[in-house]
Amino acid sequence: MAGGVSQRGFMVTCSGNGVSWGTWDTCTGGNKTREVTPIRRGGRNEISLIRGPGSWEDVTVGIQNDPVLARAVARADTEGHLVVVVKQPLDERLSPAGEPEVWQGLIKEVHTPDFDANSTGQAVLEFVMTPSSGPA
After folding, report:
1. CB count, 10 Å around CB of 28?
2. d(CA 71, CA 119)
């Protein structure tokens, strides 16, 4: 992986209510955002900027469908369990390296695969989590 890290240069693990759900295949989102408001103090010409509190975008993770795992994710959604997603950078030997990104929050959506008897595509289980905390 000379010259940078590929998208597969991360290991994504998830857990719900303290129970590991193992390693997942995909992870998107989770970027930190905030409002920045320009103001003119006391009618001056200079503009000052005020930063609002930060929040994290939703995190979406996916894995090849597993009915047992799908039930665990659905239970966490229904019962409102805390969910943790960890995105760990890997080095060129695919060993953990550096600080992981960690998000905690509640499941917003669960996407189970549609049934299609003629499909040759992989059945994917996904969930979308709204983080209450995330990486700095």
Report:
1. 13
2. 23
pTM of this prediction? 0.82
What is residue 72's three-state secondary structure?
helix
Angle at 31 (CA atoms; ends 66, 19), nearest 5 degrees: 35
Identify the CA nearest to 15 among candidates 86, 104, 84.
Answer: 84
Span 24-51, pLDDT tens digits: 999 999 999 999 999 888 878 889 899 9
101-111 and 55-56 strand pairing:
unpaired
Query: CA angle at residue 87 from 83 to 91, to 5 degrees?
Result: 160
* pLDDT tens digit sequence for 56-72: 999 999 999 999 999 99
